[in-house]
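Quick sanity check, Mobile element protein:
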Amino acid sequence: MEERFYLTSMRNHAALILRTSRLHWGIENQLHWVLDVVFDDDASKVKNRIAAQNWVMVRQMAAHLLRREGTGKGSLASKQFRATMDLPFLEAVLTLR
């Protein structure tokens, strides 16, 4: 069993604190899952700590841009693949609208 301790100035709001914590970790876990499954982040061979942090940031930005792409068709992995093969689609993903 794991225990976590949180410091807060909120009093008598255990249910709210628990819900907020679970929401945060749900979002965090979803992002890590996407980075690992879609971008194969865990298999990265980058050893330099700063370079590894930079690549994680690039992958996070790529995930955000692919999610933001307007057609809504396909998974992030399929959009990533399509962007490698279809220059107009890549331009649409990278263009701020």
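Posting the structure with no commentary besides this: The chain has four helices and no strands.
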